[in-house]
Amino acid sequence: MNCRHCGQPLNHVFLDLGFAPPSNAYLSAEDLAKPEKYYPLKVRVCDACWLVQTEDYAQADELFSADYAYFSSTSTGWLAHAERYAHDITRKLALGPQSLVIEVASNDGYLLKNFVAMGIPCLGIEPTASTAEAAEKLGIPVLREFFGEALAERLRQEGRQADLIAGNNVYAHVPDINDFTRGLKAALKPGGTITLEFPHLMQLIEQAQFDTIYHEHFSYLSLYTVRRIFETFGLRVFDVAPLSTHGGSLRVFGCHVNDPRPTAPSVDQCLSVEARCGLQSLDTYLRFQVRADKVKDDLLGFLLEQKRLGKKVVAYGAAAKGNTLINYAGIKPDLLQLVCDAAAAKQGKFMPGSHIPILKPQTLAESAPDYVLVLPWNIADEVVQQNAALKAQGVRFVKAIPRLEVL
Ligand SMILES: [Zn+2]
Question: Peptide bond preceding 357: is omega within 30 degrees of 0, i.e. cis?
Fold first, then answer.
């Protein structure tokens, strides 16, 4: 296999998680009687451009046929983050009724509704029908398509280039990052701004966040590599800000390569930090498997111990990342009896691979657990706060990453 960005042969494995079912392929009760498909889950690193990327495998398209959709609005922390961003960027770029804001992967309108409220014209791009429909109900126009060069070129020809293109947690999920970036270039008005948010590869490595690896997540990105991809297609990263979302993300600000805005010192600063963390050194990548295995072994050891002691452990948050961890560790309902999740679409279903049942959050108290394993560790504080009453009764909350810890 060759690098999806620069085309060089990929000779190094970053992490091999064996085989796993698609992390969002939640199962119905009837599905449990059917065979389940597992796909290789192996991540490679390119030693020319340092793009960390999932290995190609057969029938990749099948992953996207699942009817499941994640609704961004289910996380209150994420909604607040989106609202803050909308107001800050509107001020910073002086957006108004004459502007156009395009969001790629606009989901259920969690972000664009803020621009609608400020009277700023916007356009969502979202191929998933159920979330697109939710956004349209909020008055957001949505194109139900995948974003790439072809769509962007059409927008350009229709005179619908954007003053702001926002992409939150989409850049790492696109199979063809080159085509997507060409699309950003084509859909951006002269003088326009791109902001992309993605989990920072540096945090993944430093915090052993290997559970953020799953098939639908094609790329694991550093500023170094994003800047390089932008430059390849006539764009420039002119500013960058670290964010606490998803365990440590970056928000990059991009413009056309010839835009008069100067590049902020934050860009060089972030690149130096990445270099100091070894992101351009092959050894850093080759050492990661051992660290991921330690997290997996510690969690498994904890669950086995609780089982021997007769304690009850349940989980909170049927997130995709939970499935990576649970399936890599081979955890089944004998060790983790159930998982509660606030998303109605997941309730009554089962986790892929492990077949752990997903129930309503109210079940958490009813099931009288000794421990609650919070799978989406990025919102662990929010989960503990929401369940302060349970904690007061002596239920202990734990998370597995970056290390096993009682909260
Ligand atoms: Zn490469």
Answer: no
50 C-alpha to center of ligand 1: Å?
Answer: 6
Residue 10 Cα, ligand 1 centroid: separation in angstroms?
Answer: 8
Compute, in angstroms, the gap from residue 9 CA to the centroid of ligand 1.
8
- Confidence (pLDDT) at 101: 98
Give pTM, 2 decimals: 0.92
Three-state DSSP at 361 gives coil
Cα of 378 from ligand 1 centre, angstroms: 29
Note whether 85 and 111 are within 8 A (CB): yes
CA distance 328 to 18: 7
Which amino acid is it at 106?
Answer: S
Classified as helix, coil or strand, 71 is coil
The answer to whether 46 and 8 have CB atoms below 8 angstroms apart is: yes
In angstroms, the CA 266 to CA 287 distance is 28
What is the C-alpha separation between 236 and 224, in angstroms, rounded?
A: 12
Of the candidates 195, 175, 176, the one whose C-alpha atom is nearest the C-alpha of residue 103 is 195
**Cα of 4 from ligand 1 centre, angstroms:** 7
Rounded mean pLDDT for each run of 10 residues along the chain, 407 residues in total: 97 96 91 93 97 81 58 81 97 98 96 98 94 95 96 98 96 95 98 97 96 92 98 98 90 98 98 98 97 97 97 94 95 97 92 97 93 94 93 96 95
Distance (angstroms) between ligand 1 centre and the Cα of 307 equals: 45
**What is the 105 CA–ligand 1 centroid distance (Å)?**
25
DSSP for 83-149, please give it.
Answer: HHHHHHHHHHHT--TT--EEEET-TTSTTHHHHHHTT--EEEE---HHHHHHHHHTT--EE-S--SH
Dihedrals phi, psi of 289, to nearest 5 degrees: -55, -40
CA of 225 relative to ligand 1 center, distance in Å: 9
Burial class (CB in 10 A: 0-12, 13-18, 19+), 68: middle
61 C-alpha vs ligand 1 centroid, how far in Å? 23
Kindly give the distance from the C-alpha atom of residue 300 to the centroid of ligand 1, in angstroms, as a whole number.
35
